[in-house]
Amino acid sequence: MVKSPGYRMVGGNGLFFPILGFASIVAFIYLSFGDLLSVRYKNEISLSFVERNGSNFIVDGELFYINGWNSYWFMDHAVHYDSRPRIRAMLQAAAKMGLTVCRTWAFNDGDYNALQISPGQFDERVFQSLDYVIAEAREVGIRLLLSLVNNLDAYGGKTQYVKWAWTEGVGLSSSNDSFFYDPSIRIYFKNYLKTILTRKNTITGLEYRDDPTIFGWELINEPRCITDPSGDTLQGWIEEMSTFIKAIDNKHLLTVGLEGFYGPKSPKRKTVNPEFWAADMGVDFIRNSAPSTIDFASVHIYPDQWFKKKSLRGKLKFVAEWMHSHIEDGEQVLKKPVMFTEFGLSDLNKGFDPSQRDEFYKIVFDVIYESAKKKGAGAGSFAWQFLVEGMEDFNDDFGIVPWKRASTYKIITGHTCRLAKIHGTVTPVTGNLKDICNGRW
């Protein structure tokens, strides 16, 4: 995501939230999902690895189109037992909406509740929290797209790696873009990657690289390398790190984590990019997504962050054009699936009304649905971000509690049902599909 949200509220012994907030979560779980809580799913749901066939995802030979969401906060919340109910509540609520993949962070570098305390030094307590997140997702049949580092400063990010190298006296530059070219930092990151990929889950007993609960890996959230607008520096890093990952884990899918901007050599940079600055970020959607070690392309959609003067109508028109352009690239150029792994509309816009967000969601879902009908490369979308009640201090101006607004909830579940009508459901969901759709077929 472009903006760094307000991530945490800290009390004397870690994460703190009011008793009322906790009570609301408990009430929500038991009143809304009591039927689910009476069932344990351990060892009951069998998942297969998601694979790629050209520009499509497949599971057990069947096409797989994704209605997904972002809950970046899972690992952080799993560290403390009093906040773990939020993870289960979110996963079970998502299952009842027929959602199939959640994108979340598998990193926290040198920050509060850090997974990686310093280069190569990990907090086992936090690692077991990530184990818990994966195990919980496995129990309800939801897969995880795990992001491995942040371009932004939140949760450490590439800036933290540069600080580590600088502090140890081995850094080439204090610029955070040195993350992409400094040999010492590349070693730091490769050590981290190997540790994550070969981690043996203390709950399931599976190494991460052998667990089909993990949909795939994302190299970095929203990479930019503005000190080299040619894109060569970032491209070299993508090729090196993706090759390294595939040498350890060739079972999982891999993407870059791009926002989708076209680079300086792309003919689309002037006609499709949001504004002129987008071609100078050191990224290139086509070039960055092309290596054989990258299995699918990723794109984000934040029209109100990218445009300051466009009207709402103009922004929504851009959304459809942006999506169609990238899907076309997936089908005609890359021959790979394209996932819109973040999309959001800010509630800080002047004159904002929740109905505008509903309209935005519907546009995104309609484009994916049209792609699915044609067995196209537009393989899925992930709203930024979903939360449960009592999480106001973890929210930003894009987050929602989906079931709090009936029209939004209906749009989300309606998308599940439309996709299922075309291709069925290849992923088990805890909610009965007919109950979810309730006549929408």
TrEMBL record:
<dbReference type="GO" id="GO:0000272">
    <property type="term" value="P:polysaccharide catabolic process"/>
</dbReference>
<comment type="similarity">
    <text>Belongs to the glycosyl hydrolase 5 (cellulase A) family.</text>
</comment>
<keyword id="KW-0378">Hydrolase</keyword>
<protein>
    <recommendedName>
        <fullName>mannan endo-1,4-beta-mannosidase</fullName>
        <ecNumber>3.2.1.78</ecNumber>
    </recommendedName>
</protein>
<keyword id="KW-0326">Glycosidase</keyword>
<dbReference type="InterPro" id="IPR045053">
    <property type="entry name" value="MAN-like"/>
</dbReference>
<dbReference type="GO" id="GO:0005576">
    <property type="term" value="C:extracellular region"/>
</dbReference>
<dbReference type="Pfam" id="PF26410">
    <property type="entry name" value="GH5_mannosidase"/>
</dbReference>
<feature type="domain" description="Glycoside hydrolase family 5">
    <location>
        <begin position="48"/>
        <end position="386"/>
    </location>
</feature>
<dbReference type="InterPro" id="IPR017853">
    <property type="entry name" value="GH"/>
</dbReference>
<keyword id="KW-1133">Transmembrane helix</keyword>
<feature type="transmembrane region" description="Helical">
    <location>
        <begin position="15"/>
        <end position="33"/>
    </location>
</feature>
<keyword id="KW-0472">Membrane</keyword>
<keyword id="KW-0964">Secreted</keyword>
<keyword id="KW-0812">Transmembrane</keyword>
<dbReference type="InterPro" id="IPR001547">
    <property type="entry name" value="Glyco_hydro_5"/>
</dbReference>
<dbReference type="GO" id="GO:0016985">
    <property type="term" value="F:mannan endo-1,4-beta-mannosidase activity"/>
</dbReference>
